[in-house]
Design brief:
Length: about 240
Amino acid sequence: GTILIAKQGKVYFQKAYGKASLELNVPNNINTKYSIASLTKSFTALAIMQLVEKEKLKLTDPFSLYVSNCPDAWKTITIQQLLTHTSGIMNFSRLPDWDEYHKKQSYTSKELVNLVREMPLKFSPGEKYNYSNTGYVLLGLVIEKVSGLSYADFLRQNILEIIGAKNTGGYNNVDIISDLATGYYHKIGVPFPAPYENLELGDAAGFMYSTVADLLLYDQALYTEKLLSKKNQFYYLKKMLL
């Protein structure tokens, strides 16, 4: 992997270790791109807060105002409850056959949601906490409906281009992504290729890749008003992410 240590934006140490590709004998470097998986959710949450700031939506809005054909059980669930994993909606990646079958398929965001739409809520909205990738895919659909942009284009225009994160983006199973690390598993210390997974499936819950340098740019921007006013930073940084 690659490590970067910084304090107040100043880099004190950065170094890469191991291989980005064992098959091709390519070493990692400080510019290697990695899947950042659920760190994508912080970008989704920020995008929602930007829309709140522009008065395009409210955190107390039922998300069903923006996503069509929701089951009756979902219609009172708020955007805030999706953000904080308190909606009660089933996590699609916890389906019994997720690893063996579903994560290898090419589902759209709506098709992913459809995998669990007929399942009962795990609890009444707001009653408990239960991590849900489904909730963040639904937030991606909200962002697209309200902004009129694709989720990826919204992030690019409203976050990535503003902070100069040129080596961050989302998988789309079409573009060639240079300097992208391959994932591996280990069994008793012996590496082997990770089973095939459609990385595009993560969508607004986990489809992004980035570098340590770009993530530092992102982190530092959160303490300025480049992306979000101080008025809304408290909720984003203190209430939602911690």
